[in-house]
Design goal:
By secondary structure, the chain is an alpha/beta fold. The protein has eleven helices and 19 strands.
Length: about 375
């Protein structure tokens, strides 16, 4: 079928609205009619060249939810009419990481930026006869997607699909960075560096886990105000401001957990985070940066003698089939705020405006809402 899509043609180019050919599902795949797609900064990494892809064009989007419309041979547990969330990390359930309880590190994740379908290494999206990479094997900047069942999580039909779409990346990643990887405990002090679409959910997770102080750091005033609404107890515009006040706030202990969720990480941020972190505390590195950069600033004397830890995190440290249903239960109980995360809604044609608004600090999470005219 032919569908409208937002693709990027080269590094530094804007998103282009075009018509692509979407293939039907083969064995192990389903087709999904999307209701909404979140605008996540990770797509900017691709368009800016920070995340490597083997070729262009790339169909963007990796955070979406919708309704299953077609089911390929051999698919289990999914049927037409099911409501689903698309997770940017596939979880096959059979590889060694999945079998070891590390579904967020599924071996199929190795192909996230190749565009090669898990089922047969082919391409489900083409434009004028040439293959198009689906971002994270999803490509949710289109009203329909054909994806492997490993990337699909079935949900109950009572949850609005627009807010459910946010669980495919930002909410799960931020929440888990605080609660799972960060292992926040009651009474802890948690610092969140960058309180955008991911960091704001780290704030929510830290609040749920019982943190005494939750400190949000962001240069954007709008985001600092939102952080207070979502559970932060203190906010600062810079690390320097936080370093100056955190000792008095915590009686010299500093933060047990510092989470880096900035839009673009740089090497100097690691030492900045360590300076905010207590003895025996942990720095959680959730943010992404340019894949070519490897230099990191870190005081090794401090790292060793104060027994601090630096830990990477993807999808919040939990597999999507575990995390997404759990978070939906917390949403139903009122412990997780989803509706208020959506700052603005855009048509697919306005995707570039959505990303400009993100760059200008106007959004926590912008969402593309698909209408009947997009099909």
């Amino acid at each position: 079928m032919k569908v409208k899509a937002a693709v990027v043609d080269e590094v530094g180019a804007p998103w282009r609205i075009t018509e692509v050919e979407l293939g039907d599902p083969v064995a192990g795949e389903v087709q999904v009619k999307l209701t909404a797609s979140g605008l996540c900064h990770s797509d900017v990494h691709v368009s800016a060249g920070s995340s490597p892809v083997p070729f262009f064009p790339v169909l963007g989007g990796h955070e979406g939810a919708g309704v299953v419309t077609k089911v390929g041979p051999g698919v289990r547990g999914l049927e037409e009419g099911d409501h689903v969330v698309l997770a940017f990390i596939p979880a096959c359930g059979t590889c060694r990481p999945c079998a070891s309880g590390l579904q967020n590190l599924c071996d199929e994740g190795a192909g996230l930026l190749t565009g090669e379908a898990i089922s047969d290494k082919g391409f489900r999206v083409q434009e004028a006869g040439r293959p198009v990479i689906q971002m994270c094997l999803l490509g949710t900047f289109a009203p329909y997607v054909t994806v492997n069942q490993a990337s699909v999580v079935k949900i109950e039909k009572d949850v609005p699909l627009e807010v459910a779409s946010l669980l495919g990346c930002g909410v799960s990643t931020g929440w888990g960075s605080a609660t799972e990887i960060g292992n926040t405990r009651p009474g802890d002090t948690v610092v969140v560096m960058g309180v955008g679409g991911v960091g704001i959910n780290a704030v929510q997770g830290a609040k749920f886990a019982g943190a005494r102080y939750i400190v949000g750091i962001d240069p954007v005033e709008f985001k600092r105000k939102k952080a207070l609404e979502f559970g932060a107890t203190h906010v600062y515009s810079s690390v320097d401001e936080a370093v100056a006040e955190l000792p008095d706030l915590t009686w010299g202990l500093m933060a047990q957990v510092t989470i880096i969720t900035v839009g673009e990480i740089r090497g100097e941020y690691i030492q900045q985070a360590l300076s905010l972190t207590s003895k025996g505390g942990q720095v959680v590195v959730t943010a992404m940066g340019d894949h070519t950069l490897s230099a990191v600033e870190m005081n090794l004397f401090e790292l060793t003698l104060l027994q601090k830890r630096v830990q990477g995190a993807i999808f919040g440290g939990v597999g999507p089939r575990t995390q997404i249903p759990k978070l939906l239960d917390l949403y139903r109980c009122g412990h997780l705020e989803l509706e208020k995360l959506v700052s603005a809604r855009y048509r697919l044609e306005d995707v570039n405006q959505g990303y400009q608004d993100m760059a200008d600090g106007k959004n926590l999470r912008g969402v593309i809402s698909f209408s009947d005219t997009d099909y």
